[in-house]
């Protein structure tokens, strides 16, 4: 059992970050282990999921949904394109923009990985009733939304995160001291 499992009251607020971190790393590690056994990665899964559920997307839109920088996504897509999972085509409206879509091979990989993700979710949520699972996901969504609310005294600015449902939400990120005095931000 994890060291913070029985924490209550005020101590629970102090344990929150550790618990969230431990749960996220444990769940993602478990999923990544099973995705790797199927010849995929978490990055591949999230891109396939976004393209399957949202349809073909402009590369910039896909980067926003996945909460990754453009160059990072470009590298992932190059590998996925080489594996025949996706195709990129320039759009007629903006020749600089690439439209990304799943191929038949990508659709088949999505179907295969979808079962692995569902089975991993069953393990992670073992012992939860369907109602508890829905409530848990609502709580996680609320945490994500709460973090996205920036206030002047927190030293945080808004950035983008993706909720468990795939929706894009604001995310808070540290603002440098320079930003507080000049209005300019730099990456933290």
UniProtKB/TrEMBL annotation:
Q: Where is the HTH marR-type domain?
A: 13-145
Q: Which organism is it from?
A: Actinoallomurus bryophytorum
Tell me where the signal peptide lies. Answer: none
Pfam family for this entry, one? MarR_2
Is Transport among this UniProt entry's keywords? Answer: no
SUPFAM superfamilies, per the entry: Winged helix' DNA-binding domain (SSF46785)
Residues of the region (Disordered) are 164-188
What name is this protein filed under? Answer: DNA-binding MarR family transcriptional regulator
- Keyword annotations: DNA-binding, Transcription, Transcription regulation
Q: Does the keyword DNA-binding apply?
A: yes
What spans are recorded as compositionally biased (Low complexity)?
Answer: 178-188
GO MF terms here are: DNA binding; DNA-binding transcription factor activity
SMART domains linked to this entry: HTH_MARR
**Which InterPro entries does the entry link to?**
ArsR-like_HTH (IPR011991), HTH_MarR-typ (IPR000835), Tscrpt_reg_MarR-type_CS (IPR023187), WH-like_DNA-bd_sf (IPR036388), WH_DNA-bd_sf (IPR036390)
Which Gene3D superfamilies has this protein been placed in?
Answer: Winged helix-like DNA-binding domain superfamily/Winged helix DNA-binding domain (1.10.10.10)
